[in-house]
Specification:
With 156 residues, the chain is α+β, with helices and mostly antiparallel strands. It is built from 5 helices and 5 strands, in the order αβββαββααα.
């Protein structure tokens, strides 16, 4: 699966969040699923596979229509910032994508937000995860950095 190619292993699956407990102080140390405890470095929640623009709309982010997911999604800059300064959208909230692409988007947003010198490498890695069709769709939704406004946008 995609998880194994990323060097990750899925050790537990829960049908609802009520079936899952996460433990740790500064970071995740282990999880409990169905009364079974498993050591863990991270917890990934995959909830549905349809982008929901509600949060972006409440935040007044500029949005556009993504044909591949048949839904409205936040428009973003090349570094995945929405039309609101400091707010980044990654993964399925910005349109359906693979697990590999979602992780790569998370790295780009993190490096962009922190001003890291590793941003260009992360952008190159992200581009390598995308199909030509997905890249073209995202290009059509790209929010021009010069047109991004502080308080949000109207989708233009």
């Amino acid at each position: 699966s995609t998880c194994e190619t990323l060097g990750l292993s899925v050790v537990a699956e829960a049908q609802t969040t009520a079936d899952l407990q996460v433990f740790g102080q500064e970071s995740v140390t282990h999880v409990a699923v169905d009364a079974r405890q498993v050591s863990a470095d991270a917890v990934v929640l995959a909830i549905g596979r349809r982008p929901d623009p509600e949060l972006a709309l409440h935040g007044l982010c500029a949005i556009g229509y993504a044909e591949s997911s048949l839904s409205q999604v936040p428009r973003r800059t090349e570094t995945l910032m929405t039309s609101i300064t400091g707010v980044y959208a990654v993964g399925d909230c910005a349109g359906l994508c693979s697990l590999e692409e979602a992780f790569a988007e998370g790295r780009v947003a993190g490096y962009a937000a922190s001003g890291s010198a590793r941003l260009n490498d992360a952008l190159a890695s992200l581009a390598a995860t995308r199909s030509a069709r997905r890249a073209a769709e995202l290009q059509s939704l790209l929010l021009d950095e010069t047109r991004r406004t502080l308080g949000g946008g109207n989708g233009a």
